[in-house]
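Hi everyone,

Forwarding the result from last night's run.
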Amino acid sequence: MPVPVQRDSEETRLALAGWFEARTPGAGEVRIGPVGVPGAAGFSGEILLCDAEWTEDGATRREPLAVRVAPTGHRVLPDDRWTEQVRLLEALDGTDVPVAPLLGHEPGASVLGAPFLVMRRIEGQVPADLPSYHREGWLAELPPHDRRAVWLGGVEMLAAVHRLDPVALGLGFLDRPQYGTGHLTQQLAEYTELLPFYGADGNEAATAALAWLHAHRPAESGRPRLLWGDARLGNIVYDGVTPAAVLDWEMAGLGRPESDLAWFLHLDRHLSEGIGAARLAGLPDRAETVRHYERLTGHTVRDLEYYEVFAAFRFCLLTARVTRLLEESGIMPPGTDFPLHRNATRLLARVLEETGALQGGTAAAGR
């Protein structure tokens, strides 16, 4: 679901026109078309879609734009790490990971009330979360062999991210040393501290999962890789069945690549089994996905079960936070039976039961 429109559309259009014109040497007057939002965007950031047009060297130029604005009123994550996102997009430019070209960014709040970045909009289709792509939409309408190609293309994007050398790209700024040594240790410490922020400190499944994750933490062997963070089909723009761009880096970090692979698998599981929908025919299963990933990367996947618990735990926290924001913003009246967090909690409990972490008891699937 998209972030609600937080600004006046006409004022935004004029502000962007002035900003873009000042940063387009040799251009005449820049005209910005109507400003809208994507229908299938997430709740973690404000995205504005518009077209820019100007005259340069006697010719009319047009540029489709996507403007990502730093969160202000609706903050799903405790720290948007905005500067780091910009630096990461700049570092990824020219790599094997296709990202929307960064055309410029504004670090201050004077233009739109918050920092923002401007990217060239990549045209294509994105598998939707709401309604789930397992139930309807362009992916569900494809024949099974094309669905398979879409899925494997997503795994190929994941592998392309993990083949990058974070040291060569200068991505040390993604480290979180204030939370300790070791990237998994850092993440667990951060989530432990921030359970109240997400609104999950009273969630039995989440607290049980966190205790299990601390107790069963695997060794962090091998060099840390760049983690996409929010690795899923819904963050890929497709041209037909071929990935055209990888989106949304606000959860990026460093660590074991299994973390991304587990998130990719769990988010698909949530959008099928987690909401009571049949998984689309043609999509490769977990075992085939792992084999394909290993062939692409040369990396032997280890401790995947652990990272699947970690993925289910983190998703439970995010859905708790989104539910709170929906209530606080008035979009959803308090007490409304909104199934997102309930489903995420129920699936987390199921994952914990599969690992034996709950042995004899089922964590409550409530709020």
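The CA atoms of residues 312 and 348 lie 5 Å apart.

Cheers,
N.
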